[in-house]
Amino acid sequence: MALDSTTIAPPATLDKRKLLLRDSITFLTLALIALVLYGVTTLLFHSFESHREDLGKRWSQRGEQAIQQGRPAEAIIDLRAALTYAPDDEPYQLLLAQALANDGRTDEATAYYEAFHEAHPGDGNINLQLARLARKKGTAHEAIDFYRASIFGAWQGDAITRRREVRLELAAYLIDQHELPLARAELLIAAGNTPDTAASDLTLAEMFEQSGDPDNAYTYYRKYGARPEPRRRH
């Protein structure tokens, strides 16, 4: 009698296969659910972060506009709102420091700028703001040091022009402090890289006169007076 070549699997083996198939389907289903949940969570997170970023920008723009319009108290509120959405955003923090300074809240503004100074000690603008705040507090030596650090600091854009402007501001402050020899020294340096314009001639003439340097004052007054009348307005 011939034997059937087809082997019939025992019931236990069939049950094991069914169990493995069911477990595989369950695993794949759970994995698919996990992937879907991960995708949804990631999408929601990015959407939330994008919304926070947009809100921060809107509040900061309102704050910057308030500063430009001479409303520093409103700017402070707006910029603090912006920082709730982006607490580590340095441009927002710098705007807030500026608003605090404009609102006469010198100590708070100084605290912000000092924190920036620790991170960016060579930043020309930060040193300039600290110099101006030191002037308000009446600490002359500190103000002069910050002015000089600003002059030799790093500037974005036209660094030569910004340094010259800061040097002239320092010279004016030294005149106010009756430090006339120091003021004259700063003016002589500034005059060496000042553009050849009527406005520059008049500014230097007046400042040299205030610093007790009549010879240089006369030179620049004469230069200004020698210009054609229409050019004196520029």
Automatic annotation (TrEMBL):
InterPro entries xref list: CellSynth/LPSAsmb/PSIAsmb (IPR051012), TPR-like_helical_dom_sf (IPR011990), TPR_rpt (IPR019734)
Keywords from the UniProt entry: Membrane, Plasmid, Repeat, TPR repeat, Transmembrane, Transmembrane helix
Pfam families per the UniProt record, alphabetical: TPR_14, TPR_16
SUPFAM superfamilies: TPR-like
Membrane-traversing stretches: 25-48
Parts forming coiled coils: none
Protein name: Tetratricopeptide repeat
Organism for this UniProt entry: Granulicella tundricola (strain ATCC BAA-1859 / DSM 23138 / MP5ACTX9)
Taxonomic lineage from the root: Bacteria, Pseudomonadati, Acidobacteriota, Terriglobia, Terriglobales
